[in-house]
Design brief:
heterodimer; A: mainly alpha; two-stranded antiparallel sheet; B: alpha+beta; six-stranded antiparallel sheet; 19 strands; elongated; disordered N terminus
């Protein structure tokens, strides 16, 4: 449908007689036809359409013209001129971490956010890169936390700076630096002294001590937070054994901790961090089993 | 569902009719097998005026009787009358037209043209109360009342007491509020036609009133302070609901939200008023329109199509790519649109789901998968469809070079323009383009060599799209609306990024 000659609008779009007529219609509509007569339509199909309608009064003619022009303008959906492409960010050879890893990260954020630091650091350690959806959400989550933000920037590579340049809302509220040690290491979590040695214990010791503690009723709800911290910071190699040992107690808290141990194990495995399953190694003695 | 229980808020063509003996009401359900009730047949002998207690006994709730009380006065009624079988009258309500109310006081059934879902409605209760108090004169029943009574008797297979007063109908007699076995009780064609004609007449009245209202707005102008009051729009929407033009009522309520919402709101509201006029005019001329267009106009005007009728239509079977999802809040419900595209036909379809507060939206589709399924479109070749049989489990869509059926920006504009030209009232339409996010004149656009489209949406969606593209073209499913283009999905080789607008998680419940 030809709606009239087109001319260039300053902003880059196009304007034609119909656009001008629409502007007149909006002005008249603001005042109302009681105060201003509807503008005459430009020659062309719309004029024919409105004239054909034979409306008796100004309001009816105005409404017919508005309907016709609104329909034509919506249907005349033309693109703006092509835009200059943005300069791409410097290349990053690291692959994105898998969609499954991103899904697990979302679970971690929802259920056990203490693990998020380790997730991001593992991404860096494993030579992976944050995918776009995780990058944007992490930048939003840690806008004002200099250490975590630096860690995210490290994990995302040049894309993080590039995205923040173009979407200032994702930028840090104030430029702050973070010490390298803090960025590259996990924050310490409170673990009582009597459990400290378990942080570095082997799978056998870890599982035996925890299992025995639950069996003897030494751990209850008041210990939940520190036991969670212990599971969050123990050696990854002990996680599956610890989970199995705690599950065998049948105690509610132990079952919950076992779930968290498996979540952490899954998180690390999906990111490719070796968390050897000692049960696959016949030379390793396991609690409750004969060698 | 327990077949002996039906909800009283079900409202088929002649909702509200009940057969003798009396129904038992409990917590919003009606026992459809009242024959087993010990109190069956113990009230309403033919010709005897009821008591107030008996009226209260049929009310769905005590509050319904209280709501009926103010209407139980002769000044609210015209054309009142009663005979040995029925009561009738026209009650002046909030709608433009009075509500026609009929009560079969022997067969214990009611019918009213009001939009209430309560059975009996307050008008039927008010008519009964007025009758109890001697306010309804005896008269000869008008033809429509007589036809309704005859149709009820006919459906009862002759067992209905006739005007001479025979035995009441057997228990378990079907009526319109119950699931009817089509083979055993075929619908009364005349009754359905009459009901349809009544609905049509009411809708046409509503469309005429809408057009008058629009002309008034043109006269008084958009600067009229009344437009800033939600009440102005809500009253019009309520009238459209009365006229059974529900989808137009929703559109009017959405339009109210545009007032003052942006610097250009006058132009946006004006365009919407124009399109409402278009629908109002087209809706009044449906019989003159070609078939598919007539169907499309009827649906957009609010003509209700039963899901069962849609599902009874010929299915469109294809491998459907689940290409996009967008959630929007409309008044007090959250609406989810799933955009599916046939991989063999390239045709788009839209599946809608709705959630009120703490209800769940449809989560049965997974973005980026392909579902081999039947879709049933609404009349008029509508975009909107219902999912039918799913023939196989969904599979991940393998992104071919250039993306999933992605087209250049200019082609997408052509496609959208063609669809909007044929249905100017369309509010959303999707496209999948292979394009790069960029900046043009200070605003975000999605572009390629053929042109660019301005983007709307939250920073999160734009930033994710930007990060996914890295300055290179990516396949993106977008949703066009008159208010802008919103990115919904980025299709990458190994993953799909869902960046469409999401329902407020505090509003909708978990699936």
């Amino acid at each position: 449908m030809t709606v009239g000659p087109t001319v260039r609008r300053d902003g880059g779009g196009t304007v034609n007689a119909l656009d001008e007529y629409w502007d007149d219609l909006v002005t008249t509509a603001l005042l109302g036809t009681d105060r201003r007569d509807p503008p005459p339509p430009p020659d062309g199909p719309v004029a024919d359409l409105v004239a054909d309608a034979l409306r008796p009064d100004g309001a009816a003619r105005m409404l017919a013209a508005v309907a016709a022009v609104a329909a034509v303008r919506r249907a005349a959906f033309v693109p703006l001129p092509a835009a200059d492409p943005l300069r791409p960010p410097p290349g990053d050879a690291r692959p994105w971490c898998s969609p499954a890893a991103v899904s697990t990260w979302r679970i971690v954020v929802r259920e056990w956010p203490v693990l998020e630091d380790e997730w991001v650091l593992t991404v860096v350690e494993q030579g992976l890169c944050l995918p776009p959806d995780a990058l944007v959400e992490l930048l939003q989550r840690h806008r004002s936390d200099a250490v975590r933000r630096a860690r995210v920037t490290l994990a995302a590579g040049p894309a993080a700076r590039w995205v923040c340049e173009h979407v200032p809302a994702l930028g840090a509220p104030s430029p702050r630096t973070a010490p390298v040690e803090a960025v590259t290491s996990l924050p310490e979590l409170p673990v009582p002294p009597e459990l400290h040695d378990l942080l570095a214990a082997d799978a056998h010791t870890f599982a035996r001590r925890l299992g025995a503690g639950f069996a003897a009723g030494r751990y209850g709800q008041p210990h939940r937070a520190v036991l969670m911290n212990l599971v969050a910071r123990c050696r990854p190699a002990v996680l599956l054994d610890a989970a199995e040992s705690m599950e065998s107690t049948g105690v509610g808290l132990a079952l919950a901790l076992a779930d968290e141990a498996r979540l952490r194990h899954r998180m690390l495995t999906e990111l490719g961090r070796p968390t050897p399953d000692l049960r696959a190694d016949p030379s390793v003695r396991r609690p409750g089993r004969r060698p | 569902m327990d077949p002996t229980l039906i909800r009283t808020d079900r409202r088929p063509e002649l909702a509200g009719t009940r057969s003798m003996p009396w129904p038992r009401y409990r917590d919003g359900v009606v026992d459809a097998d009242p024959g087993s009730s010990p109190e069956a047949n113990e009230v309403s002998p033919e010709g005897r005026v009821w008591t107030s207690e008996q009226v209260a006994a049929v009310a769905p709730t005590p509050r319904a009787v209280a709501a009926a009380e103010p209407l139980a006065t002769t000044v609210r009624w015209i054309s009142l009358g009663s005979d040995a079988r029925a009561l009738w009258g026209r009650c002046r309500g909030s709608g433009a037209e009075p509500y026609d109310t009929v009560v079969d006081h022997v067969g214990v059934a009611w019918r009213c043209t009001c939009p209430s879902r309560k059975l009996p409605c307050k008008h039927a209760l008010a008519l009964l109360l007025l009758w109890v108090r001697g306010g309804v004169p005896e008269a000869i029943s008008p033809a429509p009342v007589q036809r309704w009574i005859d149709a009820r008797d006919q459906r009862a297979g002759g067992a209905r007491p006739d005007r001479a007063g025979e035995a009441p109908a057997p228990a378990g007699d079907h009526d319109e509020a119950e699931p009817v076995d089509d083979a055993a009780a075929p619908p009364d064609r005349d009754e359905l036609d009459r009901s349809r004609n009544e609905r049509l007449a009411r809708m046409l009245e509503g469309l005429t009133e809408l057009d008058r209202w629009l002309e008034d707005r043109m006269r008084t102008g958009l600067a009229d302070p009344a437009l800033a009051r939600y009440d102005t729009w809500d009253r019009l929407a309520a009238r459209l609901v009365d006229a059974r033009a529900g989808s137009l009522a929703n559109r009017v309520r959405r339009l109210a939200g545009l007032v003052g919402a942006s610097p250009d709101w006058h132009a946006e509201v004006l365009a919407e008023l124009g399109l409402l006029h278009l629908v109002a005019r087209a809706g009044r001329r449906v019989p003159e329109l070609p078939g598919p267009l007539a169907d499309a106009v009827a649906v957009v005007a609010g003509w209700q199509v039963r899901q069962a009728d849609v599902l009874a239509g010929v299915p469109e079977t294809d491998e459907w790519l689940v290409a996009g999802r967008s959630d929007t809040r409309e008044d007090r419900i959250e609406v989810r649109r799933w955009w599916l595209r046939g991989t063999s036909t390239g045709r788009w379809a839209m599946l809608l789901s709705f959630a009120a507060y703490q209800q769940s939206l449809d989560d049965s589709f997974v973005l980026g998968t392909v579902v081999h399924a039947d879709l049933h479109r609404y009349p008029g070749g509508s975009l909107r469809a219902l999912a039918g049989v799913r023939h196989a489990d969904p599979l991940p869509f393998v992104v071919a070079a250039g993306g999933p059926l992605a087209v250049p920006i200019a082609t997408a504009c052509d496609e959208i323009g063609a669809v909007v030209a044929s249905e100017p009232w369309l509010e959303r339409f999707p496209a999948t383009v292979l394009a790069t996010p960029s900046v043009l004149d200070g605003r975000w656009v999605l572009g390629d060599a053929s042109g660019s489209l301005p983007l709307t949406g939250p920073d999160r969606a734009l930033a994710t799209l930007l990060a996914a593209s890295g300055g290179r073209p990516v396949p993106v499913t977008i949703e066009w609306s008159p208010w802008g283009v919103q990115p919904l999905t980025v299709h990458l080789a190994d993953r799909v990024l869902d960046i469409g607008p999401r329902a407020d998680p505090t509003f909708v419940g978990a699936a």
